[in-house]
Every structure is written in C-alpha cells, then in structure tokens.
Specification:
Blueprint: H1 2-41, H2 43-65, H3 71-84, H4 94-117, H5 126-146, E1 149-150, E2 153-154, H6 156-180, E3 184-186, E4 190-194, H7 195-213, H8 221-249, H9 264-288
Antiparallel strand pairs: 1-2, 3-4
Helix pairs in contact: 1-2, 2-3, 2-5, 3-5, 4-5, 4-8, 4-9, 5-9, 6-7, 6-8, 7-8, 8-9
Length: about 290
C-alpha cells in the first residue's frame, strides 16, 4: 500500500510539473509575442504597452506594501504623460527634466538597496511607500520606454537587445543554479538564488552580447559587453529587492496575472530596476563617442 501510494504521488507530481511547464511556456510565448508586436508595430504601441505594464506593476506593488488610496496611479499617469509626451515639445528644457527624473529614480533605487541589506522588513510609512513606488516602478518604466529613442529614431534592435540580455541572464542563471548551484547568494531574501547561477547567467549574457553586436550597429562590441555587465548586476539587484518586498508581505508572487509566472512585477522586476542604469549608460556612450 505504501509503495503504491509513493508511485501515485510520483506520477501525479510528474504530470503536474509537465502541466506547469506547459503553462509557463504558453504564457511566455504570449508575452514575447505582445512585446515583439509592440516593438515592430510602432513606437506608440511600445509606449502604450509599457504604460499598461507599469500600471499593473504599480497595482501589484501597492497590494504588497499595503498602500491605501489610488493617488499613486494618478501620479504615475501624470509622470508618464509629462516625460513621454510633454517634454518632446520642450526641447530647451527636456534634458533638465530628464536629469531630475534620473536623480529621483536613482536616489530611490539607492534607498531600496539599503532596504535590501537591512535586517528590518518594514521601514517605510505611507508617504515613503508612495514615493518609492512612483519612482522605483514609474521612473523605471519611463526610462525603459526612453531607451530605444536614439537620435530621433526608434531603434527596435537596440531595445530587443536589452530584453534579450535580461532574458538570457535570468534563464541561464536559473538553469545554472538549478544544476550546479551550491553557494547561496542571499538566502535570507531569495533562498534559491546561488552564486553559481549568477556567474552562469553573466557568462551567457556576455555570449549573447557578442552575438547581438553582430546584428545591432548602434553600439560596438565593447559597449554591448559593458551594457551586459550593467544589466546583469542591476537586474539581479532588482530581482532581490522585489523578493524582499514579497518576503515582507508574506507572499510567493506579486500577483497571478501571468499563469505559471506569477505577477507582472515578478516578470519585469529586473528590467524595471535596470532601466535607468541602462539609459544612463547609453547616454554616456553617446557622450564619450
């Protein structure tokens, strides 16, 4: 009887795992299709898609940190409209506005980095949660949307390269960590993340950067390798910060909008945190070249 029960549990778990993998693959395929369609349709479709993604991430963040009211949505939409549309008509002052947003976003990200290493789970009052969410997610989403605009053109392959580097790092960090991971990176926040996984993700991100440099000519090979390094470092930090929020909230996922993947913030946490650093790096490349 005991042997039969063990066999039943084994096959039940195997079937469940296959169904879960299928759900993840289908959800991932739909997500990538939407992204590719928006990128190659036109820049307005790309902007709109990430405005919606940003709203969804803010909703999930708001639930996790138990932030009351809907003011953060209004503030996010106002910030979005200001930086995506209004500053295009204010050429004289656009750099000042963008620098101000960059300063605010990076300041918030530094605060979140302190929060990550703090032993306390709850450090913020309602106003602080509002400001952190607005610039952590709102600022990150806006800079993500600004990345492909280079010299008054919409560089589809550039933004695709950024997405590919994020996905390659995440995917191979997971695979390497699952098969070879022994040294925990940050067990108190993310028990499954390993040093070996991070190294594996970084190596494959560098390989991906080399391949991308053969197709995307806006950046040189060295610049793509530097960008991959920035993305891996900041992307992993972004993933850990979101894990800290989830641990503090006592939840496994930020939401359930993506079957098999959790919430939208679970999917975009690395990208949103990395976006301002990527945007800043690309502008430094432009300035020094």
């Amino acid at each position: 009887m005991e042997v039969a029960l063990k066999i039943y549990i084994f096959y039940f778990w195997k079937i469940y795992s296959m169904k879960e993998l299928l759900r993840r693959l289908i959800t991932g395929a739909v997500f990538v299709f939407l992204l590719l369609a928006a990128i190659f349709l036109n820049s307005d479709a790309f902007d709109f898609l990430f405005m919606v993604f940003g709203l969804t991430c803010i909703y999930e963040y708001k639930r996790m940190v138990r932030l009351q009211g809907y003011y953060i949505f209004i503030a996010y939409l106002a910030l979005w409209w200001t930086f995506i549309y209004l500053i295009n008509d204010m050429v004289t002052y656009d750099k000042y506005f963008i620098c101000s947003l960059m300063l605010a976003t990076l300041t918030v990200n530094i605060i979140l980095l302190y929060y990550l290493f703090s032993k306390k789970d709850k450090l913020f009052n309602s106003l602080q949660k509002f400001i952190l969410g607005l610039f952590y997610i709102g600022g990150g989403s806006i800079f993500l949307t600004m990345i492909p605009y280079k010299e008054n053109t919409f560089a589809e392959l550039l933004i695709m390269g950024v997405f590919i580097l994020i996905w390659v790092n995440d995917s191979f960090a997971y695979l390497t960590g699952k098969n070879f991971g022994k040294t925990k990176l940050f067990p108190s926040v993310s028990p499954k993340k390993t040093v070996e996984g991070v190294i594996g993700g970084y190596i494959f991100a560098l390989i991906a950067a080399y391949i991308i440099s053969n197709f995307e000519s806006n950046l040189t090979l060295i610049q793509w390798l530097i960008l991959a390094t920035i993305i891996v470092i900041t992307g992993n930090i972004g993933d850990l910060i979101e894990s800290k929020f989830k641990r503090s909230a006592g939840v496994k996922d930020s939401g359930a909008i993506l079957p098999g993947h959790g919430g939208m913030l679970d999917r975009l946490d690395s990208l949103i945190f990395a976006a301002p650093f990527v945007y800043l790096t690309l502008n430094i490349f432009t300035y020094v070249s």
